[in-house]
Amino acid sequence: MEEEYPWRETFTMIRIHVFVEGQTEETFVKEVLCEHLQRKDIYLNPILVRTSSISKGGVVSYAKIKPQLNRKCLEDDSAFVTTMFDLYRLPNDFPGSSSLPSTNDPFQKAEYLEQQMSADIKHQNFLPNLLVHEFEGLLYSNPQAFLAWFDQSIVDSLQAERNLFLSPEHINEGATTAPSKRIIKCCLGYEKPLHGSLIAMDIGLDTIRQQCQHFNQWLTRLENISGSNG
């Protein structure tokens, strides 16, 4: 069932601005998500967050990110605005970080923080989203895809790590055990801007959605947006 937004005028093309943390996520949106959603007349525009007047990338401070989200929601209110930020290592000033309920459930944690961010931004066209726990977690959807770049022994190690968890999104966010830290430890020479998006493309969106519940829910929400009054 499509989500309807009666405050919007009727139109056929739906546009969504996607704020991302880095070049890898930007490429993933352009090369994987854009093609998929265009089939539904939904057009994505990835935006790399600014950390200063001359630098881009990374959510180092929510105070620096919030004005960018607010500005885009206001200046283009005929479009939607969403985010693809890592749950891992969110800044201390992120909404809800000081009141986060004690839970080991990564989905409850992400949903709580998303709700708090939505309440803080306060725009009807804003759709908050956090990656659980980070982009590299998606790559554990099928470690065999690393075989195009790394030896079988490395792929076997990644697969063994994946098998320890209920899903890629359950791989924890410790300083040395987050998905990116595990991949870097196993895969000498791994470079996120080079390998990250290419491996994700090899895995394929269908597999990522099957393996990653929270990511799939976000993408489903985007797919089901209706720009009409119904």
TrEMBL record:
It holds the Pfam family DUF4276. It comes from the Bacteria. InterPro entries: DUF4276 (IPR025455). This is DUF4276 family protein. It comes from Nostoc commune NIES-4072.
